[in-house]
Specification:
This protein is mostly beta strands. The chain has a domain at about 5-105. Helices cover about 0% and strands about 25% of the residues. The protein is built from no helices and ten strands.
Length: about 170
Amino acid sequence: MDTVIRCTLSFHGGLNTARVFDLGACSRNTKVYNNTFYIGPDQDRPLLIFSEWDRGNADGTRFYNNIFYVAGRVTYDWGKSTNTVFSNNAFFGSHKEIPRDPNAVTRDPCLVGPLAGRLGNLATEGFKLKAGSPCIGKGLEMGEESRLDFWGGALPPTGSARCIGAHEFGVR
C-alpha cells in the first residue's frame, strides 16, 4: 500500500516471457514515476499485468513521467484493476495498445544509447536524454522529498516542469 517506484532504470526487464510489472491485491495507491524502461529487440512480453492475488485487485495505481522504450513488443493486461491513471509518459516502439494517457509523448525519446555496449555504471549513461528530446520539460512536478534524479542530478526548482524519465536533462 502507498508504494512509490521512482528514478529507476529497467533494461531488458522481465525474465524470459515474464512481465515487467505484476500488480495485485496488495497494490493500493501505488505511484510509478520518473523511471526509464527499455525492452530489447528480442523481447515479446507483457509490460504490465494486473492480476488477482488473495482475492483482490490493484486500485489507485498511477504512472507519471515514465519512458517506456520498446525495441521488441509489449502487451498490457488490465485484469480487474480500478482507478489506474497514466499521465505524461513516453511510449515508443511496439506496444500492442498504448494505455490512455492524455499527455503522452509517442515520438522517440532520444536516449543517449541504451545499447552502447558499456558495462557496469557506464551502461546507465545510455539512459540519459539527448539534447532536443521531446521528453525534456514535458513531465509533471511530483512534490518529491528527494530532489535528485537517478544520477544524483538536481531537480528543477519547485513549480518548474520536469522531464519524463529517470534523467533530469540540463539541471546540475
